[in-house]
Amino acid sequence: MRYLVTGGAGFVGSHVALALIEHGHHVTILDNLSTGHRAAIPTGAQFHEVDLLDTNRLNTILANGPWDGVLHFAALSLVGASMATPYHYLRQNMLTSLNLIEGCVRYNVPRFLFSSTAALFNNQGNTPLSEDSPINPGSPYGESKFLIERALNWAERIHGLRYGCLRYFNAAGADAKGRLGEDHQPETHLIPLALDSALGRRPPLKLFGNDYPTPDGTCIRDYVHVSDLAEAHILTLNRLDTGSVTYNLGTGQGFSNLNILKAIETVTGRELPWDWAPRREGDPAILVTDPTRIRTELGWQPRYTKIEDIIETAFRWRLAHPNGYRGL
Fold first, then answer.
1. What letters, b where the CB count within 10 A reaches 16 and e where it falls short, cover 106-137?
2. Is residue 232 within a helix (H) or strand (E), and if so which, with residue range?
3. Who contacts 124 (Cβ-Cβ below 8 Å, separation ≥6)?
4. With the C-alpha atoms ordered 167, 230, 263, 265, is the resulting torsion angle positive or negative?
5. Is 141 a catalytic residue?
6. Secondary-structure breakdown of the chain: helix, strand, coil percentages, each rounded to the nearest 5
7. Contact 7, 28 (CB under 8 A)
8. Rounded to 5 degrees, what are φ and ψ at 231?
9. Strand residues in the chain grouped as ranges (E)
10. Which of 6, 66, 130, 213 is 20 to 30 A from 112 in CA distance terms?
11. pLDDT tens digits for 111-137?
12. Are 141 and 192 in contact, with CB atoms under 8 Å apart?
């Protein structure tokens, strides 16, 4: 099948594009390379450097169909930055997504898979989050993703566009064969930051907040391996033949920030230098999902269920790529 992947030069998008190619599909990637990397584009994928705000170029590409589906990963995605520039995040993420959704309707694309987020939730308790848990975004970033989910709902009701909303919890790790990894500029994710601090490539890690209502006072998160996420996308694409779906993607296990630091030291065999920093605005205390729905309906079973195994793949990639994708 022919799939169009926006943001396919980014972390999750590149891993999903690689999985599609390995399943025998034809993949075309759209990315403006503002945060993605040309070196992350998998071998075999066609590539167009294009911004989704450029509706003329976007529609020209969509008109070159037929497309069996569009997978949408392109977005601004930093919680902290969205708190500093809320209207920029809301405007950018909404406009680019609406341009894409409208184009898919215009050119009769039958399936749309959306990269959503656990940031839709603002959980303060210990109950795992299901797809039916109350939506209460704690940041403009999360709000922008929720608004896009609602736009897709109307695209289905009015135009029949079948969609899947995949709400990631914390994507982590790297391709087991070392072909792809995580490289953000700036990096804000805990595992790559901690790995680089342990390797002496950056100053001691700053851990945001020690007064959350959790057992050790630090945030608790559900980490899911990026290749397991990719497999969930493949399964969901097939499911869209029978209607739209929404799934939470995580392992159902919660790890505190201090748990992660200990696991980093176990995997690397190095002492991790770190210190406390004030809370980061917009961070919920606990984000852990109940993945029952996707496991029951699609048979999805994450292969990486131990946090050390997830970290190990990220560690190997960072050892092999001390400068990330730069210079490749």
1. ebebebbbbbbbbbbbbbeeeebbebeeeeeb
2. helix 226-239
3. 213, 284, 285, 286
4. negative
5. yes
6. 40, 20, 40
7. no
8. -65, -35
9. 2-6, 26-31, 46-49, 69-72, 111-117, 162-168, 170-172, 205-208, 220-221, 223-225, 245-249, 255-256, 274-277, 286-287
10. 130
11. 999 999 999 998 766 579 999 999 999
12. no
Q: Decide if pLDDT at 174 tops 70.
A: yes
Q: What distance in Å separates the CA atoms of residue 198 and residue 208, rounded to the nearest whole number?
A: 17
Tens digit of pLDDT for each residue in 32-45? 999 999 999 999 99
Report pLDDT for 70.
Answer: 98
Element (H, E) at 154: helix 140-159
Cα separation, 108 vs 67, whole angstroms: 8
The per-residue DSSP string of 273-312 comes to: -EEEEPPPTT--SEE-B-THHHHHHH----S--SHHHHHH
Predicted pLDDT of residue 61: 98
pLDDT band at 272 (very low <50, low <70, confident <90, very high): very high
Domains and CATH numbers, the chain: 2-172+224-249 (3.40.50.720), 190-221+253-320 (3.90.25.10)
Burial class of 213 by CB neighbour count within 10 A (0 to 12, 13 to 18, 19+): exposed
- Enter the pTM of the model: 0.97
150 close to 201: Cβ distance less than 8 angstroms:
no
The residue length of the chain stands at 328
Q: Could you give the CA distance from residue 26 to residue 125 in angstroms, rounded to a whole number?
A: 43
